[in-house]
Amino acid sequence: MPPAFQQSVIDEFRANAGKVGGPFEGSDLLLLTTAGARSGTPHTTPLGYVRDGRRLLVVASDLGAPRHPDWYRNLLARPSVRVEWGAEEFETVAVPAEGALRDELFARVVAEAPGYAEYQEATDRVLPVVVLELPGPEATAPAVTSLADKLVEVHTWLRAQLLHVHTETEAHFASRAAHRDAGEPPAPPLGLQIRQRCLAFCQALDFHHTAEDGHMFPAMEGYHPHLREVFDRLREEHRGIASVQTALSALLADVAIAEPDRFRAELTRMTEELTAHLDYEEEQILPLLAEVPWPPAAPAATAS
User: Fold this and answer.
1) Is position 296 within any domain?
2) Of 4, 144, 174, 198, which one is least surrounded by beta carbons within 10 A?
3) Are the CB atoms for 43 and 71 separated by under 8 Å?
4) Is a pLDDT exceeding 70 seen at residue 301?
């Protein structure tokens, strides 16, 4: 799709709550915003989708081209994406389906949009099917009116993502043990679902701690110099957690996690160290942030 035409589709989508005319009239379209694999620059792409319950399915077909489209390579490197769907907009983790699940979901897509079968026939690569989970009704977040609320919101997301990865990893190891005990072929290796969620968690954690070290902690120290030891401890814990995060990120560099036992050990270490760190941080600094409004007030205009 030529860039100028693609931008016109994006503009029309946003102006009309997801409705687009011309060649896409009546089509089910969404806008997927990924971050560039190397640059981190946001890129928005209009894509057709098929709804499957609480998830939206998009296929990295590129009309049957021999290489995966850029947006797919972006989400493998940076799994956190933004989806615009009709008048709704939400953040999610993009997870390509694998194995039998991929085949099942591709058949589901083809049943509704047969053209994807032709795209698959046109290329030797297996067309990836990417799952974008819709936020559930329970996902409505409490109001954020202070910096303390914002910090709790971020910590809650980090805890939930880490728990999700940890739970799925333990389920994988339990399945692997059951296969072994039954004398069956080994269970498949740790898959893309675990990789994508863990990589999204690691990237969000790095952004959060960098922001704290570079902005929030120095500003708070200026107002509360008597808490210097608290902030020194928090920074030291950041450094320790960063070493675990670096180890995890190295294991997630490839699409397949090559060392599942080491990954499991590092994930357990991350769970223990980060949980203790978040608990201590909330105990020490949440009361200090309760009166700081969020979002910050815009600076007052000055007369010229």
Assistant:
1) no
2) 4
3) yes
4) no
Predicted confidence (pLDDT) at residue 184 exceeds the cutoff of 80: yes
For residue 293, whether the previous peptide bond is cis, meaning omega lies within 30 degrees of 0, is no
The whole-number pLDDT of residue 277 equals 98
Give yes or no: residues 146 and 120 share one domain. no
User: How far apart are the C-alpha atoms of 293 and 147, rounded to whole Å?
Assistant: 6
Q: Which residue, of 86, 104, 138, is where some domain finishes?
A: 138
Cα separation, 16 vs 186, in Å, equals: 51
Largest CA distance in the chain: 81
pTM for this structure? 0.90
Is there a domain that residue 17 lies in? yes
C-alpha span between 75 and 248 (Å, rounded): 18
Per-residue pLDDT, averaged over 69-80, amounts to 97
Do the Cβ atoms of 123 and 52 come closer than 8 Å? no
- Residue ending a domain, choose from 104, 119, 138: 138
Report pLDDT for 297: 74
Residue carrying structure tokens 């102006």: 15
DSSP designation for 216: I
Identify the domain containing residue 89 by its residue range.
3-138
- Same domain? 77 vs 116: yes
Q: Which residue has the tokens 């994930």?
A: 267
Tokens at residue 237, please?
Answer: 């814990």
**CATH of residue 176:** 1.20.120
Q: Tell me how far apart the alpha carbons of residues 302 and 304 are, in angstroms, rounded to a whole number.
A: 6
Residue 299 lies in a domain: no
Within-domain flag for 295: no
Q: Determine the average pLDDT of the residues in 70-99.
A: 96
Q: 181 exposed, middle or buried (CB, 10 Å; 0-12, 13-18, 19+)?
A: exposed
* Number of domains observed in the structure of the chain: 2
Q: What is the CA radius of gyration of the chain?
A: 22
